[in-house]
Design a protein that fits this description.
This protein is α/β, with parallel strands linked by helices and 486 residues long. The chain has 2 domains: 347 residues, Glycoside hydrolase/deacetylase (TIM Barrel); 72 residues. It has 18 helices and 17 strands. The strands form 4 sheets. Strands 3, 6, 7, 8, 9, 10, 11, 12, 15, 16 and 17 form an 11-stranded mixed β-sheet that branches. A two-stranded antiparallel ribbon has the order 1-2. Helix 3 packs parallel to helix 6, helix 7 packs parallel to helix 9 and helix 14 packs across helix 15. The longest helix has 20 residues. The radius of gyration is 22 Å and the shape is globular. InterPro entries: GH57_Enzymes, Glyco_hydro/deAcase_b/a-brl.
C-alpha cells in the first residue's frame, strides 16, 4: 500500500494556482511501482482479441485579457465576447469539459464497461476554478475520486501550460511536468495523483534533438511516469524506417550528444490529427480487424491508441456523445464488454500484458524521426556535443527539409518557423528566470510562484499557433510582465 501525505495541498495560494513548493511530497507520491489497474480491472487478457484506447485532450490558454488586463482563461473571454469568431461555442465547450462525469456513470449503470483517458492542461483547470465553474470540477472529481468509477478512467499528465516540448527551454521541461502534478494533486488529491502514470505531450510534439529528447524522457521518469503517447509519424525504427508494429507498445530510445541513453515505454497514436477518429470511435472499429500478435514469448492483443481534442469542432461537440455510447452498447452485445474487442486505459493494458509475461525489453524499439541519419554520422563511442552539432548542420545543408524542431501530429504547422518575435522573448525570460531566481528563492514563496507562472505561461503553444496578431501580442504582454517582476 502506498504511503500518502496526510495533509491536502492548497489549490490556490495568494490568488495563483499551486504549481510549486511541494516538490519533495509530489515526487515521493509519484515514484512507486504499485499496480494501478491490475487490482481492480474486470478484464482477463486471455479473453481479449484486440484492444483500443481513446484519450480526450482539453485545453484553454491563459491570456492577459481580463478586467485591467488580468490573467483569465480564454474560455472566460469567449463567454464575455460571444460575438467574436466562434466564441458562441463557449457553452458547448464548457459542457464538453464536464460531460465525461455524466457519460461514465451512465454507461456503467447500464451494464457497459467503458474506458476513457483524460488530458487537461493546467491552464484549463485553473481557468475553470477562476470562472467559478465548480460544477465542472466536481463532475470530474466524481469519476476521478469515487472508487466506483476509477477503474474506467485514467488521467494523463501533461505540460502544465501546454508547452510544445521541442521548443521549450530544457531547464523548464521538468518545471512544467511538476507544476501539473502539483496542481492536479491539489484539485483531486494525493491518491489520484499516485495513479497518473501515462503522459500526453501537447500537440503530440516529440523532440528529435538528442539532448532535448534525453532531458524530456529523464524528467518524465524522475517524475514517476511509466509511458507516454507518441504520434506514429514522429518516430522511426532504429534503422530509420516506418514502424512495422504500430499496434504494439514500443520502447522509445533517447540518446544524448554525450552518448548517454535512457528509454521509456511508448504507446503509438496511429494516423493523423483528425479528431473524427476519436469522435466517431474509429479506434474501436479498427481494433475489430486485428488479432493477437507475438510480443517476446507471449501472444497479446494489439492496441489501437488515439487522442483527439475533446471539445473542438462539430464532430466532438455534436456527434461524439452518441458514437461513444453506441460503441460501448455494441461491446455489451459482443462479449459483454469484457471479451473479444474491448476498450482499456493505457496503464491497464501495459499492466495486463506485463502480468502475462511481457517485459519492456521485449517491446520493439523506436527513436524520433531523423535520428537514424544523425547517428549514422556520429558513432556512439565518439559522441560529443560538437560532433552532433556538426552532423546536424551538415544534414541541413544536404537536405533543406532536415530539422531538429521535433515532429507532431501535423507537419504543416511549425511552432518555430516565423515566430522569432515570440521565441526570442520566451528564451530570454527563461534565461533571466534561471539566472536570477534559481537557488535564491524558496520554491514555495509567492514571488517565486508568480515568476514561475509567467515563465510557464509564455511558453503556451497557442501564442505560436494562431499566427501573428492578437496572440503574439498576448505573448509580448506576458513577457513584459515577467521581465518587470524579475
Amino acid at each position: 500500500m502506498l504511503s500518502l501525505p496526510t495533509t491536502d495541498l492548497p489549490e490556490i495560494i495568494d490568488g495563483l494556482p499551486n504549481i510549486t513548493g511541494y516538490e519533495k511530497e509530489v515526487l515521493a507520491v509519484v515514484n512507486h511501482d504499485e499496480p494501478i489497474f491490475l487490482p481492480s480491472t474486470n478484464i482477463k487478457l486471455e479473453d481479449v482479441k484486440a484492444v483500443f484506447a481513446i484519450a480526450l485532450h482539453m485545453h484553454q490558454p491563459t491570456i492577459p485579457a481580463g478586467h485591467d488586463g488580468s490573467l483569465i482563461s480564454n474560455l472566460q473571454y469567449m463567454f464575455e465576447h460571444p460575438h467574436e469568431g466562434d466564441n458562441h461555442n463557449a457553452g458547448p465547450f464548457a459542457y464538453c469539459y464536464s460531460r465525461m462525469g455524466d457519460f461514465i456513470p451512465e454507461l456503467v449503470n447500464q451494464g457497459c464497461n467503458p474506458r476513457v483517458m483524460l488530458d487537461y492542461s493546467g491552464n484549463l483547470l485553473w481557468g475553470l476554478r477562476q470562472m467559478g465553474r465548480n460544477d465542472i470540477i466536481d463532475n470530474l472529481k466524481r469519476i476521478t475520486c469515487d472508487s466506483t468509477y476509477q477503474p474506467y478512467v485514467e488521467w494523463l499528465g501533461t505540460m502544465w501550460s501546454h508547452a510544445v516540448v521541442p521548443s521549450t527551454p530544457i531547464p523548464d521541461i521538468k518545471l512544467h511536468i511538476l507544476a501539473w502534478q502539483h496542481h492536479f494533486a491539489a484539485m483531486f488529491g494525493w491518491s489520484a495523483l499516485a495513479r497518473v502514470k501515462g503522459f500526453s505531450p501537447p500537440e503530440m510534439h516529440l523532440p528529435n534533438h538528442p539532448d532535448t529528447l534525453f532531458e524530456f524522457v529523464k524528467a518524465l521518469k524522475e517524475c514517476g511516469y511509466r509511458w507516454l503517447l507518441v504520434q506514429e509519424h514522429s518516430v522511426e525504427t532504429i534503422n530509420g524506417e516506418s514502424l512495422t508494429y504500430r499496434h504494439l507498445p514500443h520502447r522509445l530510445i533517447a540518446r544524448n550528444s554525450q552518448g548517454e541513453t535512457i528509454s521509456i515505454t511508448a504507446l503509438i497514436k496511429t494516423q493523423g490529427s483528425d479528431t473524427k477518429l476519436v469522435g466517431q470511435m474509429q479506434p474501436y472499429y479498427e481494433a475489430k480487424t486485428l488479432s493477437k500478435q507475438k510480443l517476446g514469448s507471449v501472444f497479446v492483443p494489439p492496441i489501437v491508441s488515439q487522442i483527439g481534442d475533446g471539445e473542438n469542432g462539430g464532430v466532438m461537440m455534436n456527434e461524439f456523445p452518441q458514437a461513444f455510447k453506441q460503441a460501448w452498447w455494441d461491446m455489451v452485445h459482443h462479449g459483454g464488454g469484457k471479451s473479444g474487442v474491448v476498450g482499456m486505459c493505457g496503464t491497464e493494458y501495459l499492466e495486463l500484458i506485463e502480468a502475462a509475461g511481457c517485459k519492456p525489453e521485449d517491446y520493439p524499439t523506436c527513436q524520433p524521426v531523423g535520428q537514424h541519419q544523425l547517428w549514422q554520422r556520429v558513432s556512439p563511442e565518439n559522441s560529443q556535443p560538437e560532433a552532433v552539432e556538426k552532423a546536424i548542420q551538415e544534414l541541413k545543408q544536404i537536405n533543406p527539409n532536415f530539422h531538429m524542431d521535433g515532429a507532431s501530429w501535423t507537419n504543416h504547422i511549425s511552432w518555430v518557423q516565423g515566430y522569432k518575435n515570440v521565441l526570442s522573448p520566451m528564451n530570454k525570460l527563461s534565461n533571466l528566470f534561471h539566472q536570477q531566481v534559481d537557488n535564491l528563492l524558496a520554491t514555495n514563496s509567492s514571488e517565486y510562484r508568480n515568476l514561475l507562472l509567467h515563465n510557464l505561461l509564455l511558453q503556451t503553444s497557442c501564442f505560436r499557433y494562431w499566427g501573428q496578431g492578437t496572440w503574439t501580442e498576448y505573448a509580448r504582454e506576458i513577457y513584459q510582465r515577467g521581465e518587470k517582476l524579475l
